[in-house]
Structure prediction request, 86 residues.
Amino acid sequence: MALMITSECINCDVCEPECPNDAIFMGIEIYEINPAKCTECVGHFDEPQCVQVCPVDCIPTHPEHVESKDSLWVKYQRLQAAAKDA
Prediction:
């Protein structure tokens, strides 16, 4: 399951540097999460780091990108392999 940032985001800048996959970026008005890069920190941490630091609790699971822990692990491995090849 990829995460998403809702319109309640206050652009506090704490989530972006916490993302080990560089999935969080500044959108037009608020921060956004690239679902192709979001592994909910699987492979890095036990809990999503952006959710842990968000002061307004605006980072839920993205309903259009539901994934199992196994598929998040596969995505993590693919992202790591791509980073090594870069």
Notes: The chain has a mean pLDDT of 95. Residues 3 and 81 are 22 Å apart (CA to CA).
